[in-house]
Amino acid sequence: MSATAHTGTTGSADPARSAAKPARRPGRQRGERGRGASVALHTTLMVASAIAIFPALWIAFISFGPKNAWTDPGGVLDHLSLQNYRNILHTNFPKWFLNSVIVAAATTVLGVMLSASAGYAISRMKFPGHKQLMWTFLTTQMFPMAVLIVPLYNLLGTLGLLDSYLGLIVTYCTISVPFCAWMLKGYFDTIPHEIDEAGRIDGLTPFGTFWRLILPLARPGLAVTAFYSFLTAWGEVAYASQFMSTNENFTLAAGIRTLATDQRADWGSLTAAAVIIAIPAALVFFLVQRHLVSGLTAGAAKS
Amino acid sequence: MTTATIDRQSRGTAPRAGLMTSFKRSWDKHWYAWAMVAPVVIVIGVLVLYPLGYGAYLSFTNANEMTVAKNIGPVHIPASYDIVGFDNYWKIISGQDGDFYPRLIWTVTWTVTCVAFTYAIGMGMALLLNRPVRFRLFYRLSLILPWAIPAFVSVFAWRLMLNSQYGVFNSMITQVGLPAQDWLGTPFAQKVAVIMVNVWAGVPFMMVALLGGMQSVPQELYEAAEMDGASPWQRFLNITLPGLRPVSNTVILLGVIWTFNMFPIIFLLLGQNNSGDTDILVTYAYRKAFTGVSDYSGAASYGMVILAILLVFSTFYRRYQAKTEQA
C-alpha cells in the first residue's frame, strides 16, 4: 500500500512542477493537475478508503444475515433478516449498552476537564514541577497494563470501587488524561498570551481567563480530547472484564465476551452487537471530525 | 492576588531571585497553578504510581496464585510469599526462562515494522489529502474511520475476515493469484496478520497528525522553492520533512510506546489460537498473570523490564531529537 501511495504522490506532483512554469501552460493554475495525475490520485485514495472501511462494512453486511452467515457470506443477500439483532435484545445487551454510555460519558467529561485545567496550568504558569509533570505524562504511557492491573484490582477492592461505575471511570481517566493533558498543553501554547493578559486586565482571575476565554478558543483541541477519552472508555476490554463482576454491571466490551465463549461462540449475535457498538463511536467521530486535524497537531507540533 | 506574578512569569521576565529560597514564597506564587494540576496529580498518583510501586514490590517477591492472600469462603489465608531479591529479574535477563529473548526479538520486530508502515502509509495518505482534491471530505472521513471503531469490534471483524475456512480475505487474495493462508493458524502467518491489522488500525492517527503538521508549514516556502526550480521530491525532502520534524518526532515516539505495549490486537485477534510465538512481551506478561497458575511476580517483573526498555529508549530518543533540532 505504501508503494501505491508513493506512486500516487509523485504521479500527481509532476504536473505541479510543469505548472510552475506558467509561460508554457498559461491556462493552468499553480498546483493544478493533469488528467492522468487526477486519475492516479483518485484511484489511490479510493483503494485506500475501501481498505479502511471494508472491515466495518463487512461485519455490518454479515450481521443482516442468518445466524451462521459468516460461514456463507454469499448467501446473506438471499436470507436477509434482523434475527441477530432480535437475539441480542434478549440478553443483557441493552443494560450493558447503558452502562457503557454512562461510563464513557463520565470519562469524557471528567477527563476533558482534568486534562484541560492541568494542560492550561502547564502551558501558562511556569510553576516548579511542570517539567516533571510533562515527563510523567509521557512515561505513564509506557506503563504496561499487565503490571498495573493486579495492584489496581487490589486497590479498587480496598476502596470499595470494584464492580462500580466510579472505579472504571477513574481508571479510564488515568489512561486518557496524561495523553490529553499533554496534547492540550501543546494546543494552549498556540493560543496567544495576549488574550490571557487582556483577560487579566479586565479583572478575570486566572481560572476565569481559562474558563471564559481560553476554553472557547481551544474547542478543536478539546474536541480531540473528548474523542480520545470517549474511545478509550468505550473500547477498553481488559480492565472492564477484570473489574466488573456482575453481568448486570458489564460494559459492552466486557459483556460481549460472554456471547463468544470459546466453546460456543454465537458469532451471529456478535456481529449485530459489533454494529450497534460501532454506531455511537461513529457518531462522536462525526461530531468532532471537523476539529481532528487542527486539534491533534497543534499539540504534537509544539510539545 | 497572584495574577500579576503569574502573568509576568508567563512572559518569562519574572525575577529569578527568591524563586526557590523558601517554600512559603513559592507557594504564594504558585498555589494557583498547583491547584489546577492537583486533581490530575492525585488521580495519577493514586491510580498509576501507587499500583506501579506495588507492582515493583511484587517483582521482588515470589508471589503467585498459591502464595498470595486469599479468602476461601470464610477462611482468610494470609499471604505466604517472600522477598526473593533480584531472582525474577535474573531469570529473565539470563534467559533462563527461555522465553524472554525470543519474545523481545519479536516485540522489537513488531514495533519497528508496525511503526515504519503506519508512518510511511500515514505520510503518503496525508500528502494526498493535503492537496485540493474533489471529495476530500469523503476520503478523509473514510481514512480516519478505523480509528473511530473500538479495537475489539474491528479486531472481531478481521477475525471473521481472516478465518482460513470461510474468511473473505482468502477469497480475495486468491482472486489476485496469491495463495490462501491459514492466517490465524501458523506462527508466521499469525505474525503477518497481527501486523496487518495493527497497521490498518494505526494509520489514521499518523495520517491526521501529519496532515495537521503539513497544514502548518508556511506556503511561502513552497512558492519560493518552486521559483528556485526545486522538483516536487526536493520540496518534499527540504521543506515538508523538516517542517514536519516536531510532529514526526512526537508521533514516532508515541507510536513506538503504544505499539510496544499494544495489547488488544494480538490478544483478541488470536485468542486461544495463539501458539505463543506471536506473543509480544505485554501479552506474554498478561498470560503469565492470568492463565494457569497465576504468576504475579513473574508478570510484574516482565512489566518492569518493559518499562525500563521504554524509558531507556525514550531518553535516548529525546536526546537524539534535541541534538537534531539544534543542528
Please explain how this structure is put together.
- The complex is a heterodimer of chains A (303) and B (327).
- Chain A has 13 helices and no strands.
- Residues 1-28 of chain A have low confidence and may be disordered.
- Chain A has 303 residues and is mainly α.
- In chain A, α1 packs antiparallel against α2, α3 packs across α13 (267-302) and α7 packs parallel to α13 (267-302).
- In chain B, α4 runs antiparallel to α10 (232-260) and α12 runs antiparallel to α13 (296-326).
- By secondary structure, chain B is an all-alpha fold.
- Classes of the chains: A mainly alpha (303), B mainly alpha (327).
- Chains A and B meet through α1, α2, α4, α5 and α6 of A and α1, α2, α4, α5 and α6 of B.
Structural descriptors:
heterodimer; A: 303 residues; mainly alpha; MetI-like fold; 13 helices; B: 327 residues; 2 strands
Report the CATH topology name of the largest domain in chain B. MetI-like fold
The CATH superfamily of the largest domain in chain B appears as: MetI-like
Strand order of the largest sheet of chain B: 1-2
State Rg of chain A.
Answer: 25 Å
The main sheet of chain A comes to: none
